[in-house]
Specification:
This protein is an alpha+beta fold. The protein contains 10 helices and 11 strands.
């Protein structure tokens, strides 16, 4: 066993490399812009980060080399996305700790973003936390550490409110708890969280607000959340 005051060189250098990548505000802005799970071209990311295209190219190369971003080539065009959901979870966790989040982050005072938004590919904000807690309170989740699976009671509850069909096979889909950085409580992440969020869009409970991660509930969604025990206007 290693002494408590030591770390493997791989761990030390990897943490230092990530810290260096996240220390630049422009690179942090690029990563935050991709937290909604979108795929964006370099020019768009440059505008969102408020930097010149040539500067963005250098930052994107560093983030790609550091395995925080993945590149998708389509003909002559290149698009960027977060490398995986572990990167999204890391950024969210750093935001919870107050590390790497821009001091002027508008979410802190934006009630629309605070109420409901996407965290990479799953539901976050007050709504995400409330949905997780409502299902958990009904014994809807089997929890083991950070791992989450939908229980039989959870399947029945989702069927009752119209989010789960009889032929849906979701019992084995793994989820995990994800700390919501604005609510400081858990919402549902992982593949199960992504499935549930996709289903909320498919059943037209939620729709995206243009060019943001913010979400709004439809009339169908307000009624559905009410059946789940949640009142949209009280979130």
């Amino acid at each position: 066993m290693l002494p408590m005051n030591t770390a493997t060189p791989q761990t030390r250098y990897h943490i230092a490399e990530i810290g260096s990548l996240l220390s630049d505000p422009a690179r942090a802005a690029i990563l935050l812009a991709l937290m909604d799970g979108t795929i964006r071209p370099a020019g768009e990311l440059a505008r969102m980060a408020g930097i010149a295209p040539s500067t963005a190219s250098a930052h994107l190369r560093k983030l790609t080399d550091g395995e925080l971003l993945a590149v998708i080539d389509q003909g002559r065009h290149r698009y960027y996305r977060l490398a995986n959901d572990r990167v999204a979870q890391m950024i969210e966790n750093l935001s919870v700790a107050g590390i790497g989040a821009p001091a002027s982050n508008p979410w802190r005072g934006d009630p629309v973003m605070l109420r409901a938004r996407t965290c990479y590919n799953h539901l976050a904000g007050a709504l995400g936390v409330a949905v997780f807690e409502k299902i958990r309170a009904a014994d809807g989740f089997a929890l083991s550490g950070e791992a989450v699976h939908l229980s039989e009671a959870g399947s029945r509850r989702l069927k009752q409110v119209g989010l789960l069909d009889n032929d849906d096979a979701v019992d084995g889909i793994p989820g995990r708890t994800c700390v919501d950085w604005t609510e400081r409580r858990f919402h549902l992440g992982g593949k199960l969280g992504a499935w549930l969020t996709t289903r909320l869009f498919e059943r037209e409970w939620l729709r995206r607000r243009t060019s943001t991660r913010a979400l709004t509930a439809t009339t169908v969604g307000r009624n559905g959340f009410s059946a789940l025990g949640l009142e949209w206007d009280r979130l």
